[in-house]
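Morning F.,

Quick status update on the modeling queue. The single chain you submitted on Monday has been processed. Sequence for confirmation:
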Amino acid sequence: MLTNCQQLKLLSADDKRYNTDVADTQQLLRIIQSIPSPKAEPFKLWLAEVGRERIEETIDPELTIERALETYLRKGYTREWINQRLQAIQVRKELTDEWDARGVQKGVEYAILTDEISRAWSGMTTRQYKKLKGLTKENLRDNMSTLELVLNMLAEATTTEISKQRESSSFVENMDIAREGGAAAGDARRAVESRTGVPVITSKNAAQLNQVVTDMIEGVVTEQNDNANPDTKD
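Structure tokens below.
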């Protein structure tokens, strides 16, 4: 712990702050690896399993997609949503490849352009969007409804296509293109809302969206059972 931990002043039960050992996720896992106790053995086995999977994915990247699919299914997402999510990953990759070709720097510049796209179609930056859904470290796209996800894909795909046609050569040009791509999806969002009378943007996160789907399925099953057994109704 002396090697891996640092100390920060954290608030205690007596409302005073004391120097307390702290560690990030990587440091905590490293500490667990070094604990000579049978109680730590399950964690060590899990770390070994994860390491094996990462090596396999390096050899065969297709396994990454298969494991992502399995993870989403375990979390309760529908196969229809998962298909959209995997497509969204591809659309995002095409956009970042285009940005890379135009000299956009990973990190801060990627984040700035992503915010411009998000603001143009949803009216919010990524941070504001996550705050609306009550998210902290969670992935925003993993907490979008199908329609939100589709419109975000439209915004990014449009941005990619405009960039290819204009062959932008400066960050300022990419900013303008990001706004235009997002605006196209923003127009689509407003058109959908005009026809449905329902806002596209929702504050619901993944857990809440999945519960809505579960309730719908249970409702259909209950209705089918009632129809099949009319004598059981009140």
